[in-house]
Amino acid sequence: MLITSLGHAGLRVETPELRLLMDPWLATTGAFQGAWHQFPSNAHLDTPELLDCDWVTVSHEHLDHMDLSVLSRLPERTRVLIPRYPSKVFLRRLRDAGIANVIEVSAWQRFPLNTAGDWLTFIPEQSPMCHDAGVLVCAGGASLLHCNDARLSVAQGRRATVEAGGRLDVMAVQMSGASWHPICYEYPREVAERLETEKRVGKFKAVTRLLRGVAPLLAVPFAGPPCFLDPVVRHHNPTSRSPGIFPDLEQAAGWLAERLPGVPSTYWLPGDTYELPSGRCVREPRWQDFSFADTEAYLDRYAAERRPALEAVYAAHPDPGDDLGERFAEHFARLGELSTYFLERIAMTVRFEVEGPGGGCWDVQLGPERARVSLHGGDGAAQYRFRVASRWLDPVIAGRVGWEDLLLSLRFSAWRSPDLYNDYLVGLLKHADADALEAVACYESSRDSGETVVVEGPDGSRYEVGRYCPHAGEDLTHGAVVQDGVLRCLGHNFDFDLSSGQCLNARCDPLQVKSEVAQSTLSSQISRQ
Fold first, then answer.
1. For 360, how many CA atoms within 13 A lie in the half-sphere containing its CB?
2. Contact by Cβ (8 Å): 427, 440
3. What CATH number has the domain bearing residue 506?
4. Is there a single domain that holds both residue 346 and residue 427?
5. Residues 432 and 458 both lie in one domain
6. Domain boundary among 272, 305, 338
7. Domain membership flag for residue 28
8. Is residue 310 part of a domain?
9. Of 33, 101, 23, whose CA–CA distance to 61 is shortest?
10. CB neighbour list of residue 385: distance below 8 Å, 6 or more residues apart
11. What are phi and psi of 9, to 5 degrees?
12. Could you say which DSSP state residue 201 is in?
C-alpha cells in the first residue's frame, strides 16, 4: 500500500489493483465562503494523474472534505462512496451538484473495492447529532484507519483493529478542531485564551486516550489546521499558535511524541508518501525549508497567489435584495416545524443583527412549542446574538449552503447569555432535516442509563456515574477526566458537576451520579466491567 498525503485530510491510497482518493480538498477558492485554505498549499497536486482513480470516499459534507471542484472533474468510471446517514441531505447535496455514481455504504459494511480482496468500511460517530465517519481501508495486505473529523470511541477503534485482522498499520487522527467557539464570540481576551487552551488540551487528551487504547503501529495527526488568507479573517491565523484552537501538525506530533512514546507518530505534508509494509517515507522536496514556526512571509505570498480566487468568492456572494428578511422569516418558519424535541431543548430567543443591504435586526424565538420570527427585533431580551453581513447569510437562506458552512467561515460574531453551549440550537441549524433530527431524538430517548462505571480524580476521590455521557454517548470508562469535583467528557468537552450531575457548560441532560464510593466498591465495580 502506498499512501500519498494530499494535505489537510486528503489521502491517495494505491495498490497494484486499487486507486482510491479519500476526502480530497484542492479547491483554490478554499472552503466555507473562501475563509479556509489548505495549509500549506497543495495546488501542485491538482493534476489529471491524481484524479485518475477508481474510487473516492467523502466522509461528510463539510466543504473541506466534500470538494465539489474535485468531484465534478472525476473520470466517468469513478464511483463516490459516502456513509449512509439518517437523512439524505448529504446524498441530495452531491446529486444536486451533478455528482454521479454516488453509493451509500452502511456502518461497518465491508465494501469490496476489487476482486483482489481489498475493501473498506465506514465508522460513523456514535451519536447521530454528528454526521461524520472514519474510514477503515484494508488493501494490499495493509490497513489504514482514516478518522477524518469523526470523534471515534476507543471501542470503535478497537473493533476496527479486529476487523483489520488484529493489526492497524496507520491511524490518521484529527488534532486540530473545526470550531467557531470561542474565537468568534465577544469574550475578553483573557477569557478567550482560557477557553482556547481548554479546547486545545481537551482535543489533544481525547486523541491521546484514543491512540493509547487502540495502539496503531503509526499515528499521523492530520486534517488541519487551515489558514486564513482573506484580510477580513486573517487575524485568525495566530490561533494556530498556543493557546489557539487550530494547532499545527508540528505541535500535534510533538504532543504525541512526549505523552505517548509507545505509539510511533509522524506527520505528512502535501506530496509526502508512505509505503507499507516497508515503512519507507519519502518527503516532498518543496517543503525542505518550510516550517510552521515561521509562516508570515509564506502566508503573504500564498494570499497574493490566491487573490484572484478570493475575488471570485466575493463576486459569487453579491449583496442580496430587500426581500432577504421575508425569506429569512420563511426559512425559520420551516425550521420550526421540523422537531418539537429540539424546540423544547432550545427554548430561547436568538437575535440576528444582519449588516448590509437587505439586513436588519431580526429575533427568532425557538421553542419551547413553536418558532416565531420578528423582523422588528431588538427590544426584548435575547439569549443568543449573531452579527453577520447579509452577503454571507443570503446563500444559507437560499439553501445553497448550510448553516454550518457559514459558522465555520468565521465571518460573524456571537454572544450568548447564559454562556452555555446549546447543542440543539446548532443541531437544528446544521441538520435542518426532519429525519436527521428524529434520529437524534430516538437515540437520546432510547439510551439505557442503568450501566455505571467508577471514575477517579487525581486526589483519589471516586464516583460511580453513568457509563455513557448523556450528550453523545461517549464511554466514560475511557473518555473522561476528573478534576476538582468536575467530570469532563473528552468526546466534546462537556463538564458535569459530580455533586449534582448537572452539565456546567452546555444544555444537556444531567449525568447520573451516585455518592463517592469506597475502595471496596471500586473493586466490585471493576470486576463487573
1. 19
2. yes
3. 2.102.10
4. yes
5. no
6. 305
7. yes
8. no
9. 23
10. 350, 351, 352, 353, 414, 415, 416
11. -100, 10
12. H
Strands 170-174 and 219-222, sheet pairing = parallel
Residue with the three cell numbers 453523545: 472
The DSSP code for 264 is -
Long-range CB contacts for residues 45-48, cutoff 8 Å, separation at least 24: 45/6, 45/7, 45/270, 45/271, 46/70
SS3 label, residue 334:
helix
Among candidate residues 395, 329, 392, 320, the one with its CA nearest the CA of residue 357:
320
**CA 315 to each of CA 255, 321, 429, 480: distance values in angstroms, whole numbers, following the listed order:** 42, 15, 26, 47
Instruction: Report how far residue 522's alpha carbon sits from residue 510's, in angstroms, rounded to the nearest whole number.
Output: 22
Helix (H) or strand (E) holding 490: none
The answer on 145 and 61 residing in a single domain is yes
pTM: 0.90
d(CA 249, CA 141): 28
CA 187/CA 421 separation, integer angstroms:
14
The angle at the Cα of 448, spanning 60 to 482, to the nearest 5 degrees, equals 75
Contacts of 456 (CB under 8 A, 6+ apart): 462, 482, 522
Beta bridge partners of 489: 480, 494
- Confirm whether 508 is domain-assigned: yes
CB atoms within 10 A of CB 398: 12
Same domain, 97 and 19: yes
Tell me: do 420 and 502 sit in the same domain.
Answer: no
Sheet containing 480-483, strands listed edge to edge, beginning at the edge strand earlier in sequence:
480-483, 486-489, 494-497
Task: Give me the helices (H) in 85-218, please.
Answer: 89-96, 154-163, 189-214
Query: Under a CB-based contact definition with an 8 Å cutoff, are residues 299 and 306 in contact?
Result: no
319 occurs within a structural domain: no
Question: Do residues 244 and 361 both lie within one domain?
Answer: no
Q: Which domain holds residue 6?
A: 2-305
Cell representation of residue 71: 468531484
Among 271, 305, 339, residue at a domain's last position: 305
Q: Say which CATH number the domain at 353 has.
A: 3.30.1050.10
Cα(429)–Cα(405) distance, rounded to whole angstroms? 11
247 plus 335 within the same structural domain: no
Question: Do 85 and 172 fall within a single domain?
Answer: yes
Domain of residue 186, CATH code: 3.60.15.10
Q: What is the full per-residue pLDDT of the chain (529 aa) written as tens digits? A: 999 999 999 999 999 999 999 999 999 999 999 999 999 999 999 999 999 999 999 999 999 999 999 999 999 999 999 999 999 999 999 999 999 899 999 999 999 999 999 999 999 999 999 999 999 999 999 999 999 999 999 999 999 999 999 999 999 999 988 899 999 999 999 999 999 999 999 999 999 999 999 999 999 999 789 999 999 999 999 877 888 899 999 999 999 999 999 999 999 999 999 999 999 999 999 999 999 989 999 999 999 999 999 999 999 999 999 999 999 999 999 999 999 999 999 999 999 999 999 999 999 999 999 999 999 988 889 999 999 999 999 999 999 999 999 999 999 999 999 999 999 999 999 999 999 999 999 998 887 667 888 988 878 888 899 988 888 888 888 778 888 889 998 878 899 999 899 999 988 889 988 767 655 444 334 333 3
Number of structural domains, the chain?
3
Are the C-beta atoms of 153 and 480 separated by less than 8 Å?
Answer: no
